[in-house]
Amino acid sequence: MEPQPRPPPTPLSPRTHQLTDFTQPDWKHDVLLASGERIRERNQSGKFGKGFNRSQAKDQTEKEAWRAALREAGTISSWHVDNDARDEAEFIGLVVEDLSNRVFYFRSPYFTNNAVGLDHNVDHLISMLNIGSDDVRMVGIYGTEGIGKTAIAKTICSRLYNKFEGVSLLKDIRHADQEHKLVNLQRQLLQDILKIKQVMLSDRKKHNMREIRIRLSQKKLLLVLDNLDKKEQPYFFTGERDFLGPGSRILITTRDEQLLDDLGVHEKNGKLAVRERSKQRFTEEKDEG
């Protein structure tokens, strides 16, 4: 299974931010990396502790402030060349890959800078998607309105944006039963995947399936079908799913668990752990999921 891009870090205290900020002239991050012994850094023990005690801290108050910052910095999730790679070359490759993933994450059209409290749900659902396998897999999220299903799906799209040939999130399909609204979503699907601004389609949704099949044939896609309430709705975007490329994934959000069973999803999740800080954001965004 491919390693996933790491989510944005938890905000640090000002002192710790200074300690780990690459842009500061008084940058001390090299000390943290050079020693490679996070426990000693955190506790200021061993040779690191002796060196720290000989530091140029002006007084005991400042020294204690730096001690606290080091303890906080020592708890940041990180990699270690001895534990995570066979040699320095492989370790550098891991770092480059992670930085590349972060760039795609932040630059994807689905990025949100306020995805508070979503990490646990997002990580769990990405593991359910099992993007390392070549089958075409369908996963569902179900639950009542406003618990954050759409926000979680959007964050997944951002995290996995560079893992697929195309990504599309089609929002609120439940309210698009009229012919022209479904056609607009079919048009959005092609625009998202092909990265073009205009697509000419028929006014008939069933007729458009031929165009979708031809233009998306055998592409590895991540499709989010948001807020479904009828079994026939996925057909107008994925057909029988036989034209999707190996490794494609379909993520469905709905309020109806039985609908997911009827659609034959591979896995489903109805136990979303929504933290208190997330609830306000879901309300403010009027999450349809």
UniProtKB/TrEMBL annotation:
Chain ranges of the TIR domain: 41-102
Gene Ontology annotations of biological process type: defense response; signal transduction
Domain NB-ARC stretches: 120-266
Protein name in the entry: Uncharacterized protein
Gene3D superfamilies: P-loop containing nucleotide triphosphate hydrolases, Toll/interleukin-1 receptor homology (TIR) domain
InterPro entries named among the record's database cross-references: Disease_R_plants, NB-ARC, P-loop_NTPase, TIR_dom, Toll_tir_struct_dom_sf
Biased composition (Pro residues): 1-12
Transmembrane annotation, as ranges: none
GO terms assigned for molecular function: ADP binding
Pfam family, one: TIR
Lineage, top ranks: Eukaryota, Viridiplantae, Streptophyta, Embryophyta, Tracheophyta
Recorded superkingdom: Eukaryota
